[in-house]
């Protein structure tokens, strides 16, 4: 496995094509806008080096027997699934941000079991190709950007019905030695901090969409691959000289990018699905399930930090013993642990697939993510309530440091007797960062739209909730004789 420093140096060797605010960034590793997100991802390497975190952060590869980072692991038991969620909570606690390595891990596991069943049904050899590539990823301890979401264009139309075919990534040419693809993947978390991209279809496909049913791996600096770095709330504060307090979280952050594929050639050994549209839906469903499970860990870890920050804000405001403050903190803990309980539950109920890899309970994973689309917003609201309006109206750090304005700021922004004004400002900026600033991208908005927006989970809950079986339970208890019924149940629309 790589160390934290080795990981950072490995990114310097890549010739990534990254653009931000109209200009190409020649050195993404040390760019002040990007470095906090790099630090967050690097924490997955640092913790793996620490003996006290070895059980959560590492695993034994079932393919090689080597000890590997858990982010490169194929789950071999329900305990592996549970450890994944616990690992994600730990990283959330350590960074208070998105650590960007989960999507690749979830893609590995979805593709592993799907290619196994695809080969069994169709006689293809994608499973062996994928295993060889994955062994390389495990042995080199690489970061892989799992890429599923397409721009999608007109949402009322499917992939093959779009006016511009590039609205969904697709195959434009098949060669004897590989394929050529065009299109883009949007909202790509940690793309600039990744060694490779692992591409998946974004939805179930019809035969007419077969050119869009494609799954492959490509190096981040491959010819034709480029990235446009996304903007975030308050992100330009990072560019200010000496910025610290106003950042809220000066060490860690997250990022997303639009990844462009302009006639990119992919060799056959890196292609894991090509026009097998019948299996696109299976791959999407399994990936979505794994990633919805992930939110029961990472968002909970960030929630732990936010709850702690809110409690500190109450201390600095002088109201830690107020009954309504205590009640709000209790409610925040209750909501946060509810998210965690769902993440653990869908993991503990996981079962082996035909490939031997373990899949979470899909119904409970969708319930987990449905809760994540709601509860972090209430946790954030309560944190803002406890923090008070000063969180968004207080002067800048430059005013605090100013020789004339500084004493005035310290006088009028002091809180509880004996509390340091600067420390009060720091904790308020941290709450701002998580609820409204750069970390809010991952904690709030991603909680809603990541791994599928709320309606996607409701559709899956409807499919997997087994209403028919529940009706039968009720009939049995109520002693209903269905032979006496002659009414027609309306067909589903």
TrEMBL record:
Gene3D superfamilies on file: 4-hydroxybutyryl-coa dehydratase, domain 1, Butyryl-CoA Dehydrogenase, subunit A, domain 2, Butyryl-CoA Dehydrogenase, subunit A, domain 3
HpaB/PvcC/4-BUDH N-terminal domain ranges (all copies): 3-273
Residue ranges annotated for the HpaB/PvcC/4-BUDH C-terminal domain, each copy included: 280-478
Keyword Heme attached: no
Keywords, sorted A to Z: FAD, Flavoprotein, Oxidoreductase
Superkingdom assignment: Bacteria
InterPro entries referenced in this protein's UniProt entry, alphabetically: Acyl-CoA_Oxase/DH_mid-dom_sf, AcylCo_DH-like_C, AcylCoA_DH/oxidase_NM_dom_sf, HpaB/PvcC/4-BUDH, HpaB/PvcC/4-BUDH_C, HpaB/PvcC/4-BUDH_N
UniProt name for this protein: 4-hydroxybutyryl-CoA dehydratase/vinylacetyl-CoA-Delta-isomerase
Organism: Porphyromonas miyakawae
Gene of this entry: abfD
């Amino acid at each position: 496995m790589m160390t934290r420093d080795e990981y950072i140096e490995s990114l310097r060797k890549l010739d990534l094509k990254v653009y931000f605010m109209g200009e190409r960034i020649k050195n993404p590793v040390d760019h002040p806008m990007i470095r906090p997100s790099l630090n967050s991802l690097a924490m997955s390497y640092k913790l793996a080096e620490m003996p006290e975190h070895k059980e959560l952060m590492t695993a034994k590869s079932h393919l090689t027997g080597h000890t590997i980072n858990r982010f490169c692991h194929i789950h071999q038991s329900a305990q592996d699934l549970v450890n994944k969620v616990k690992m994600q909570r730990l990283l959330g606690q350590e960074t208070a941000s998105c650590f960007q390595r989960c999507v690749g891990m979830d893609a590995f596991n979805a593709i592993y079991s799907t290619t196994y069943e695809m080969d069994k049904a169709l006689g293809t050899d994608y499973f062996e190709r994928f295993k060889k590539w994955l062994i390389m990823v495990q042995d080199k301890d690489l970061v892989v950007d799992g890429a599923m979401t397409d721009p999608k264009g007109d949402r009322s139309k499917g992939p093959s019905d779009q006016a511009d075919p590039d609205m969904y990534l697709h195959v434009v040419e098949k060669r004897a030695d590989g394929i050529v693809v065009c299109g883009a993947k949007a909202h790509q978390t940690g793309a600039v901090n990744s060694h490779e991209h692992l591409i998946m279809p974004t939805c179930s496909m019809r035969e007419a969409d077969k050119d869009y049913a494609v799954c492959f791996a490509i190096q981040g600096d491959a010819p034709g691959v480029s990235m446009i770095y996304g903007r975030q709330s308050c992100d330009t504060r990072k560019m200010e000289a000496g910025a610290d307090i106003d950042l809220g979280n000066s060490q860690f952050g997250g990022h997303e990018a639009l990844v462009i594929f302009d006639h990119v050639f992919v060799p056959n050994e890196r292609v894991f699905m090509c026009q097998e549209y019948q299996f696109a839906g299976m791959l999407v469903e399994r990936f979505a399930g794994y990633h919805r499970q992930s939110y029961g860990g990472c968002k909970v870890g960030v929630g732990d930090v936010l709850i702690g920050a809110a409690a500190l804000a109450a201390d600095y405001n002088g109201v830690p013993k107020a009954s309504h403050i205590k009640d709000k903190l209790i409610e925040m803990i209750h909501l946060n642990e509810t998210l965690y309980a769902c993440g653990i539950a869908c993991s503990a109920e996981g079962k082996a697939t035909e490939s031997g890899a373990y899949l979470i309970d899909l119904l409970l994973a969708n319930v987990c993510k449905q809760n994540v689309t709601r509860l972090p917003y209430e946790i954030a609201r309560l944190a803002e309530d406890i923090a008070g309006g000063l969180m968004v109206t207080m002067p800048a750090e430059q005013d605090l440091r100013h020789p004339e304005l500084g004493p005035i700021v310290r006088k009028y922004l002091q809180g509880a007797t004996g509390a340091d004004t600067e420390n009060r400002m720091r904790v308020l900026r941290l709450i701002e960062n998580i609820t409204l600033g750069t970390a809010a991208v991952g904690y709030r908005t991603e909680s809603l739209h990541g791994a599928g927006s709320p309606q996607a989970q409701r559709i899956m809950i409807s499919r997997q909730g087994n209403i028919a079986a529940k009706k039968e339970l009720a009939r049995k208890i109520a002693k209903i004789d269905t032979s006496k019924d002659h009414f027609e149940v309306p067909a589903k629309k």
